[in-house]
Specification:
With 212 residues, the chain is α+β, with helices and mostly antiparallel strands. The chain has six helices and seven strands. The chain has a single domain, classed as Class II aldolase/adducin N-terminal domain (L-fuculose-1-phosphate Aldolase). Strand 5, helix 4 and strand 6 form a beta-alpha-beta unit. The longest helix has 23 residues. Bound molecules: zinc ion. Zinc ion binds next to loops.
Length: 212
């Protein structure tokens, strides 16, 4: 499949997964020429590969090629790809449970070993800034340090991956983790894993991925 088709297919999948209310989310994919990103103000079920803008690497900041404007959140997509060469794809949505935690500005602690698949604990909350701004992008890049996901205060979350499938799976798993954490809070809060236990889980994930 051509890269633009991969991105559109992933956008459709995000809708099917039910973790992207309305038109809130956006996705990006690294290619040799630059970053492909979902366009602004187009419903995912009406999106076609020809509409996907390309933002060339090394070009003028914000420059894009294509008939439609990039998502208003293009800055943090570009800045994450710039800061994190291992990131091949990014998913951003306003899914219910992760967003509820972001509204409470509550990071996700070591409440489950799955936190290790995001690089460790906690999953931070990027500070609030107006959507689409450079200030927000700076906050997101900082909150992602050493992690493959972060929440964004009063907004939603971001997951990254080597591929779009990776980033999508991470989005599903982050929303699940957020939901489990919220439910555990209603039971008086989770017992937390120790740093050593989280570190062991991080190593176990690394081994599992190497074996595959
Ligand atoms: Zn958003």
């Amino acid at each position: 499949m051509e890269a633009r088709e991969v991105l559109v297919a992933a956008a459709h999948k995000l809708v099917e997964l039910g973790i992207n209310p309305g038109m809130s989310g956006n996705l990006s994919l690294r290619t040799e020429e630059g970053m492909l990103i979902t366009p602004s103000a187009i419903a995912y079920d009406e999106m076609t590969p020809e509409q996907i803008p390309l933002m060339p690497f090394g070009g003028q900041y914000g420059h894009y090629i294509g008939p439609k404007r990039p998502s208003s959140e293009w800055r943090f997509h570009v800045d994450i790809m710039d800061a994190r060469p291992e990131v091949g794809a990014i998913v951003h949505t306003h899914s219910p449970y992760a967003t509820a935690l972001s509204m409470a500005r509550r990071e996700i602690p070591a409440c489950h070993y799955m936190i290790a698949r995001f690089g460790g604990a906690p999953i931070r909350v990027a500070g609030y800034a107006l959507f689409g701004t450079a200030e927000l992008s700076d906050q997101v890049v900082a909150a992602l340090r050493g992690r493959t996901a972060c929440l964004i205060a009063n907004h939603g979350f971001v997951t990254t991956g080597a591929t779009l499938d990776d980033a999508l799976l991470a989005a599903v798993e982050l929303e699940a983790l957020a939901k489990q954490y919220v439910i555990s809070l209603s039971l008086g809060g989770p017992a937390l894993l120790s740093e050593r236990e989280v570190a062991a889980a991080v190593r176990q994930f690394a081994t599992a991925y190497t074996k595959n």
